[in-house]
Amino acid sequence: MTAKQASGGRGIRRERTPFxxxxxxxxxxxxxxxxxxxxxxxxxxxxxxxxLRVTVVAEAGGPASGGRPFExxxxxxxxxxxxxxxxxxxxxxVTREVNLDLVAKGDTESAAIVxxxxxxxxxxxxxxxxxxx
Amino acid sequence: xxxxxxxAILGVPLLYTQETWLHGRSVSPVVIAAGVIVxxxxxxxxxxxxxxxxxxxxxxxxxAVVGMGLxxxxxxxxxxxxxxxxxxxxxxxxxxxxxxxxxxxxxxFSVGVxxxxxxxxxxxxxxxxxxxxxxxxxxxxxxxxxxxxxxxxPILLAAELDGVRLGLLVVASLVLPYLMVFYxxxxxxxxxxxxxxxxxxxxxxxxxxxxxxxxxxAAMLAMYGRVDAVNGAATARVVTLAFPASIGAALxxxxx
Lengths: 133, 256
Hints:
CATH topology of the largest domain in chain A: Immunoglobulin-like
Number of domains of chain B: 2
CATH superfamily of the largest domain in chain A: Immunoglobulins
Number of strands of chain A: 6
Oligomer: heterodimer
Strand order of the largest sheet of chain A: 1-2-5
Structural class of chain B: mainly alpha
CATH architecture of the largest domain in chain A: Sandwich
Structural class of chain A: alpha+beta
Order of helices and strands of chain B: HHHHHHHHHHHH
Shape of chain B: flat
Largest interface: A-B, 34 and 38 residues
Helix content of chain B: over 70%
Shape of chain A: elongated
Number of domains of chain A: 2
Order of helices and strands of chain A: HHEEEEEE
């Protein structure tokens, strides 16, 4: 009887090598870590709607791109991701709008705006709208 | 390496898809975990009938575990390389993107033997020599590049990747196809390694295949109006597209 026949036509049976054992252990660990991590974060993470926190800071280095650049940072501390996020930033009497495709829950996204160099006053920002995914 | 080759062939196009990056962060983690578990069952069945180890399909569960685990690790490495996952990404979102990307990669693992038969594709014997290698390399690169070049991803990635990551992408574009073609025990490996033709040494052939993938990528981007000058931005776009194209070029060479 050949080895193939002995294995019922499913290939040659042989003992696992140390490398194959190591590969199996690492693979099992990686798979379990991903599945367990997803389940735990899905069940134990924050719940409820998206909660977007906006901060605006002047970019270091002074005037650039024909005006005063500001960095707009949006952090989602809520329990749901937010898509098509629209943020309105006002500096003095100048208003700029920032659009972000997605701010996932637990994530931070940032963008830059530029206002004219003559604009004075501190920046103010608010979330105007977003959609639920 | 046969599983890695299969996984790279099926997984890289999805890796270059914005929706994967977005949905990996917006879809419920529990839903993604359920998807991974369902695909794991599918991989067990595929490993029973096909697998990535020729002549050994009597341990489908073990092979499915190895395929899934290595897919997770390969996806993680490629996502870090492309800066889709990094220190600023929350663990939950990183796990989501990695899990979504690893699903097609794991299926590639499970059908690794079938993707590139050990004795090569039909009529493979008709394609001989270095010229034949480069011909099928260009065809493989064209198939992948043609699918990705019209999309926004090469432009987006090229704009966001720094010089170090672009350099590492070139290294990956050389090393991964080299391992796939010369270490995956696919068709014609012995003859390929033993050949002493001017273009058939492992390193020479790998470099020439990358050059082909690079040229094909540049041509595809130019055709779609994505490259219209020789400058840093254009080079970054070509390098970004040349990575999946080099995987396609490797697949072409595996089939002969």
